Amino acid sequence: MRKIPPLNALKIFDIAARYKSFSSAASENHMTKGAISQQIKVLENWFEFELFNRTANGIELTDNGSNLMKTCNLAFSIIERQCEDLKRKSNYRNEIIIGCSSSLLSYWFLPKLYGFFSADKKFTLNYNSQASFQSIINGEVDFFISGEKISNYSFIDYELLYKDEIGLVCSVEYKKKIFNNDFEEITLLHSKSRYSAWNEWCCLSNIILNVSNEIIFDKLSLALDAAKLNLGVTIAPKFVVENDIDKGLLYAPFGFLNCSSGTYLYTRNNLSNDKKTIINEIISKVKG
Fold it and tell me: Is there a single domain that holds both residue 57 and residue 131?
């Protein structure tokens, strides 16, 4: 038997400590203020010290009470997160969790999935645009797409999806400034995720851009959206923008150049065969 105080009393203490009010805790738990006070007393008897200082103006946590509040916050957060995870896994046995940046999702991954879903494909796709490589290590995603090459984990398989080709892209209207050699009038659109892309492209193309106007965005997708709005030019991988180029939304006046970077797929190798089959179908679709 675990040597812990009653869980219901801890739950009530957690609420009372957060609100610093027995009345608010009573309201949230649909209990009387006296019943809340009684549960707090149960805890104080168990610990053999007071958790609150009672004053005419209300209640204040003691030092021991503050320490217990921190412990409860951590413990209940872990329990809540794990319970939600178990519930999700139970509800979505065929769920595929994808870790991929929002830029790759919106400009490449999702457009490529058009026509993929059908009645015989019974699974749920869950996209996590905030995922990192640590997410796949922790098992929070089933596969992860990234420009970073990491290969020293025995339980993670990886493959090169694309050897990157990068190019300067802009709107069809903005290309007039390029062809008129109005480079001083050009605005460079940077993305923090690929901030060195401009220097890399200039070295590969032997083109020097002496410009003073620059705009920096958190994500590549925002830089591309700005380019389509005639705000400037940015650097992007070919596979990310080729769909918009085909539609006439973007233009690559100098074409694309091979560079040293690549885009990799990381997959946990302990997945079920059903999941592996679905993931292989998804990757074949987006690469096609």
Answer: no
